[in-house]
Prior knowledge:
By secondary structure, this protein is of the alpha+beta class. It has helices at residues 3-6, 9-28, 49-60, 62-71, 80-86, 98-109, 113-116, 152-173, 182-197, 199-212, 252-273, 306-321, 324-334, 343-358, 367-380, 387-406, 412-426, 430-464, 477-509, 520-538; strands spanning 119-120, 126-127, 131-138, 141-148, 219-220, 233-237, 242-243, 275-277, 285-287, 293-295, 301-303, 335-337, 383-385, 514-515, 518-519. The longest helix has 35 residues, at 430-464. The protein is elongated and about 130 Å long. It is built from 20 helices and 15 strands. The strands form 5 sheets. Strands 1, 2, 3, 4 and 6 form a 5-stranded antiparallel beta sheet that branches. The chain has a 4-stranded mixed beta sheet with strand order 5-10-9-7, covered by helices on one side.
Amino acid sequence: MNFLALRHIGRLREVLMILARRGYAHLVARLPVPFNLPALQRRRRLAPLPEETRLALEELGPTFVKIGQIASTRRDLLPGEFVRELSLLQDTVKPFAKEEVLRIIGEDLGQDVEDLFERFDREPLGSASIAQVHAARYRGREVVVKVRRPGIESQVSEDIQIMEALARLLHDHISETRIYDLPGLARELGRALRGELNFRREADALDLFARGFEDWNTVRIPRVYRDASSRRVITMDRLYGQRVYHLEDIPEDRRRTLARRALEMSFHQFFDLGFFHADPHPGNLLVMNGDVLGLVDFGRIGVVDDRMEARLAELMAGIIDRDYPLITDVVLDIARPVGEVDELRLLRDLTELVEFNYQKSVDQISVGDILTDLLDLLQRHRLVVSGDYITLVGAVITAESSANALYPGLNPVQEMAPHVRGALRRRLLPKALGRRARRAGRRVVRDAEDVSRDLVNLISQARKGDFTLRFRHVGLESFLFGLEKISRRLTTGLITAALIIAGSLIIGIDRPPLLFGYPALGMMALFVAAILGLWLLFVGR
């Protein structure tokens, strides 16, 4: 077991007991843990396993609730019913003391709250597992101040270590879980959660998005105030507006316009900026005065490099144009196979998946549904997609759901098509081709240097007499076993023949001691030869 987890043995035991009570006793019982667990009774579950899983995470505390929320974006690994259930997790906890809020702000920003802010509301607007938010006034502007919960860093660190140790235990001792690469998933979840603890990263993200949308008068990004922010405190503009859930009464044409703006905002991130809001769900989208869209909560962002942008554009072009070989090629390029992959069957299943969705009416076609079904299909074909691509695909799905909350009749396939074709055209521009050629050239030079170095090492080893070739024979086990059996029978036959010859010669000498009137030594040799002959006939075949 990971020695780090041994420092927190009590918490690990508590985690395992809660999981056992919530329907996972059959897995917990198979783990070799360095402490005794009470008899794990398989109680009758009162709820389906996905719901029990959500209840277990809520019982385990705020850190595991946050982990469950992040895990709910991994649609490639979790069945749909688990994704839906984990998305219901509510990250709401009791506010921490006002004195702690004032202390943290004073320690980090070097001034008392009264000296720094013109107004600071002691009662929080909201409280979550990592931080709570207070309204304030700063430099004549209405702002929100997010303050990290005291002690949360050590608590999160402990729970992440336990999660990683548990993932390693499951991977090492329960073979059915190995397809999911639980240690890798635990590291990814831990990295995402640690990133949310550092508010300087969120401040960087706010600045990045503000520059990316500085020419847009239809999108508002909160301004961050660096001199009133730190690792544990962040101060930003307060945006006022309506949540998209509460717009049922506005005219249909306005809702359609807002939905298109929401999609345009998302496509601009995916295909133009190279970074994106990783959690653009409807709760993080505000409709402000003048139908301006406000985007909030930048704790998690994703990055789109050239290769990811190309694969996303090709995948979406394949879906839009119903180019199934292209979709198959992209899938095989971005996914890691766990076992053999039947490419013809994969192509057939992808064709059926997209064609099934295109049989729907135009206003019912959903990119989100197609991508969700695609991730389920990859899971059935034992293809695992890296976390970066899953975060990107999850953001595409969530962006569409936010647009649907504004106007359900919008066709996201038609809205996305110009952006997809534009991204593919840009890849053919001389500048883009030159950039890829330079990168390819650098890779070729690097690979040539590696090959040259390896050849020099091989020649050097050969000159010193240290050169060794190792062969691994595949499929020769049955042949070697048969060869060994033949040699054993041949050796036994030679010994039997020698005993018969020796026994016959000794009997001809007629010397005592005698057995049944014949020399005893000769009779014993013939008896042993008879036994070996019977073994060759009936046993050693």
